Amino acid sequence: MKAQIIDLLKKGKVGVMPTDTIYGIVGSALNPDTVENIYLLRKRTPDKPMIILISSLSDLKKFDIDLTKAQTEILQKIWPNPVSVVLPCPYEKFTYLHRGKKSLAFRMPKDERLLEILKNTGPLVAPSANLGNKKPAKTLEEAKKYFGDKVSFCIDGGKLQAKPSTIVRLYKDGSKIVLRKGSFKV
After folding, report:
1. What b/e sequence results for 145-169 when a residue is b if at least 16 CB atoms lie within 10 Å of its CB, and e otherwise?
2. How far is CA 51 from the centre of its chain?
3. Contact between 129 and 22 (Cβ < 8 Å)
4. Counting beta carbons within 10 angstroms of the beta carbon of residue 171, is it exposed (0 to 12), middle (13 to 18) or buried (19 or more)?
5. Which residues of 42-78 are buried (b: 16+ CB within 10 A; e: fewer)?
6. pTM of structure
7. What angle separates helix 2-10 from helix 112-121, to the nearest 10 degrees?
8. Is 110 helix (H, G, I), strand (E, B) or coil?
9. Which of 183, 75, 58 is nearest to 119 (CA)?
10. Can you give the residue ranges of every domain in the chain?
C-alpha cells in the first residue's frame, strides 16, 4: 500500500491521508500542476499559500532556501514537531507556492510513517482536508464527503482531533514571531 501511494504522489496525483496533526489533502510541492489541482479541489483562496511537509532540513534546498547558522540551530531544536516555520522565498519560479507572498511555510512532522513517505516522495503540500471555509475533516468519511472520487487515494487514520500546527515566522538572526498558536509551544 505504501509503495503504491508513493508512486501515485510521484506521478503528481492527489490524495487524502492523516498528517501529524489532522487529515490533509496531499500532493507534490514540486509539481505546479498538482498544487493548482489542490487549490481547485479545495476551492481554496488562490492567494493563500499552503504548508509544505518536508523530511529533512536539506529539503529546503529544493526551494532555494539557504539557512543562516541561527536559523539552522533553531530548526534543529524545534523539528520534528507540529510547528510550521515561515521562511523567505522570493523566487519567481515558486510563485505557484508562495502566491505572491514571497515566503513559504514548512513543517517537519513528528510521525515516522509520514516521514518515510516524505523521504520517498519529496516535499508535499498538505492543507487540511476540507473545502474553502468548511471545518477540517476529522474522519476519512468526512474527507470523502468533501472530495469523493476526485482524489486518487485515501488513507484511514481513524478519528483525528489534534490542534493545528503552531506557525512561526523565522528571521535570519534567529528571532521569531508566532503567527498562530497551535499544539506546539515555541
Report:
1. ebbeeebbebbebeebeeebbbbbe
2. 4
3. yes
4. middle
5. bebeeeebbbbbbbebebbeebebebeeebeebbeeb
6. 0.94
7. 40
8. coil
9. 58
10. 2-180
One-letter amino acid at 6 equals I
Question: Could you report the per-residue pLDDT of 41-68, keeping only the tens digit for each?
Answer: 999 888 889 999 999 999 999 999 999 9
From the list 43, 8, 46, 4, the residue with the least C-alpha distance to 28 is 8
Instruction: Return the residue matching grid coordinates 515516522.
Output: 112
How far, in Å, are 63, 65, 114 from residue 151 at the CA level? Answer: 26, 30, 18
Counted residue by residue, the chain has a size of: 186
Omega cis (within 30) before 80:
yes
C-alpha cell at 117: 513517505
φ/ψ of residue 112, rounded to 5? -60, -40
**Under CATH, which number does the domain 2-180 receive?**
3.90.870.10
Contact yes or no for 143/42 (Cβ under 8 A): no
pLDDT digits (tens, 9 = 90+) for 83-131: 999 999 999 999 999 999 999 999 999 999 999 999 999 999 999 999 9
For residue 137, the 8-state DSSP code is: P
Contacts of 175 (CB under 8 A, 6+ apart): none
